[in-house]
Amino acid sequence: MQKILLSLALFSLQIFSLELSPGLSNASVYFISPLNNQVVENKFVVKFGLKDFGVAPAGIALDGTGHHHLIIDSKLPAFNLPIPADKNHVHFGKGQTETQVVLTPGVHTLQLLLGDYRHIPHDPPIFSKRISVNVQSN
């Protein structure tokens, strides 16, 4: 039992001591479309913009690059851990810069967060302003 607890403790220390990939303070990620408070159909295209940084697929450790994560109806995750992968945290690990989204009618929030080759935010983190979209029923 003590060996298991020791192993868990060491693993936890490794997670919290991950070296974060360097970001750039002048880098920014933003929405090309949709715009904040835009009315959209339940199926719409989201286009990602990135300034003063590059895009590279997950698994490619290249300084000054990362890949997009779309945060839907959720707050930003912890910046020192891998970004979750679920319906609220959509990964674009192949380096995609746009996607088609399907949402239920109503108001939804969208935010972009850049992750490094391990899906961990940079230091400093590179994330967009949170926007809202009003999804209309067809």
The CATH C-level name is: Mainly Beta
Let me know the largest β-sheet: 6 strands, mixed
CATH topology tier name: Immunoglobulin-like
pLDDT below 50 for ≥5 consecutive residues: which ranges?
A: 5-10
Number of domains: 1
Please give the share of residues in helix. Answer: 10-25%
Radius of gyration: 17 Å
Q: Which homologous superfamily in CATH is the superfamily?
A: Immunoglobulins
Count of DSSP H/I helices: 1
Tell me, rounded to a whole number, the average pLDDT. 91
State the separation between the terminal residues, measured CA to CA. 58 Å
Structural class comes to mainly beta
Brief digest:
This protein has 138 residues and is mostly beta strands. It is 11% helix and 37% strand. It has one helix at 2-16, and strands at residues 28-33, 38-40, 43-51, 54-55, 65-72, 89-91, 98-102, 106-115, 131-135.
